[in-house]
Amino acid sequence: MTQTNLSTFQPLGRFRWVILFCSCMCNAFTWGTLYSCGVLYSCWCKDFPTTSKAFISLVGALPVAVGCALGPIHGIIIRKIGYRNATIIGSLLMSTGWMISSRMNSMLELLITFGLLTGFGAGLANFAGSTALNEYYIKDRVFAEGVVGSALSFVMFGSTEILQKLTEMYTWRGGMLIFGVIHLQLCVVGLLLIRPDQAPTHPLNCWKKKTNSYQVTTSLDTTETIRMVEDCNQNIDKNVLARKIVEAEEKQNQTGPPKRSMREFMKISWRLWGKPSFMLLIISDSLSWMAYYIPFVHLVERARLLDIDAETSAWINSCNGLGGAVGKLFLGFVFQKIKIHPLYAYAIAQSLAGLATMLSPLWSTTEGLFVYATIFGFMSGGYGYIKASVALMLGRDLYGVSFSWFLLVEGIGLALGPTIGGFLYSSTQNYDLTFIFSGGLIFISGMMCMWKNMVESCESVRNDDCDDKVTFSDDALELKMTAISCVT
After folding, report:
1. Rounded to two decimals, what is the model's pTM?
2. 441 by DSSP, 3-state: which?
3. pLDDT of 121 strictly over 90
4. How far lies 388's CA from each of 142, 275, 330, 432, in Å?
5. Distance between CA 336 and CA 143 in Å, rounded?
6. Which pairing describes strands 215-217 and 3-5: parallel, antiparallel, or unpaired?
7. What is the rounded distance in angstroms from the CA atom of residue 316 to the CA atom of residue 314?
């Protein structure tokens, strides 16, 4: 039985800020930069005039769609090689996709290089960063998600304008090549994504310490650990916590260690799909992502069709990022302060963003689009809240499995939404119906989450069912580290 120093986990609290920064970078330089593809979409419409807008929209949306849809595969890879290695490999693939795409001469070729290769790498790096965040942050997850979402919006705000300038100076090919080089910095970020059990003594941890006291074991059932985290809020003594950890481990050893097999993954997945709360969350999330990406893809072109110049159109899209940078951080702080359930926070943000999108065709001027983009960005932090809801309602020990399926349906929605938006434009020759369609789906996805209490009341709680405690050993170990750092 491996012995670990309780006092060596004292620097874990400070290192959590490093993990938060790295998770911000993983999120910002994957989805954040891909959200600026509206600039590329407009350039592709000019350079490939014989290609339908629906197909060009599909190529623009495909990287995020593929990155999400392959969530189950990303989850398996991360469990096999760890989120540190997964981030490095994902960033290399993503950068390669950006750079190779600069040499392509047709939208079909871009579909493969930008849509598939870039999407796979971005999804792997993003999921790895999110997994690390989930294992270091528990009670303050909503605030952490607000910070991560704000960082994404800051980068989206800057990358849209930077990409617009690069396309003007070097065409879209030069812009994609430079962006590919920029994304290589995630390889360095990935080096800092250290497992919680390794962080206290890792050479890259500036706060590492080596002392001798409080010996405890290094494996623990996640459910027991969560109870200990709750005890931390009552200022429990370190000795008491250490004793409870040892007792919980001895109890776990009687039933054997948790398994990592694909069979176990499918078993947990089968049980999840039978939960009403899981169905509510995943349906709402899929509707949201079918509509959420449409403004990012089509807003720049919508502005240009209103005879707004290219630079101003790019600034309109950048306001999405500016509004999000302020809104996600502000709303995350407010919702954390008033202690509202993350799903209700998600419902509020989504409903308001949906209303703004549905009403945006009523003010189709330069000023109106600036106002709409800012409001939409300000209210666009719902994704972080639903991720926190998954952990709270389904269990943090099942987060990796459940979120893998969320990413799958998100990817399907992301591929369908902008494509349908482009088809609606081709049919009507204006973007009014496209944005009404998008806003309607976002509004519905938010309002249906008000059924949370009713859905939960329909679920039978089986506290004595051992299936509800199936976990992966990685999750148990790292949640234990968080419990220990809570009292040190």
Report:
1. 0.66
2. helix
3. yes
4. 6, 17, 17, 33
5. 6
6. antiparallel
7. 5
